[in-house]
């Protein structure tokens, strides 16, 4: 589906993709859920890494929202980073969660998803999707930030985890 452009679509697609993400994760055995990936990947080495990445981006978008709605300028994407340096930011995020268990990563993500959903639900369509409505969003609509942190990011996560699943099948066929 194309990027959501209405509150209804944003809520539907983010919920649908979130459910699909966990259906995919639930299709793995307990061992596979915590195993290291069998293919070369520079950053994320297991499902937990994907889940904590999503969680942290939820945390960031919620912080942008809170700071921005208070009339201040949030550090987007994070203090000391810009959109060109997000790979370095993502590596730092990865480092933060290396002692997080798989179970904790699931719980963190489910809780942050709920918080993001509550913020989205608290706004009407115009508040979410009118560009330049809020100073803190610049030329963007606030909903674009929430779409990036939810539905679009869940798509990215599913593609990554499906690649892992495919690598497992190729190993089992040998």
What does this entry look like structurally?
This protein is mainly alpha-helical and 174 residues long. 66% of the residues lie in helices and 0% in strands. The chain is built from 8 helices and no strands. The mean pLDDT is 94.
Order of secondary-structure elements:
HHHHHHHH
The total beta strand count reads 0
Task: Give the overall form.
Answer: globular
| Strand composition percent | under 5%
Rg, rounded, reads: 17 Å
- Please tally the helical runs, counting DSSP H or I stretches of 4 or more residues: 8
Helix share bin: 55-70%
**Can you identify the CATH superfamily?**
dinb family like domain
Overall CATH class: Mainly Alpha
Our measurement of the CA-to-CA distance between the termini, rounded to an integer number of angstroms, reads 36 Å
Residue ranges: pLDDT <50 for 5 or more in a row?
none
Number of domains: 1
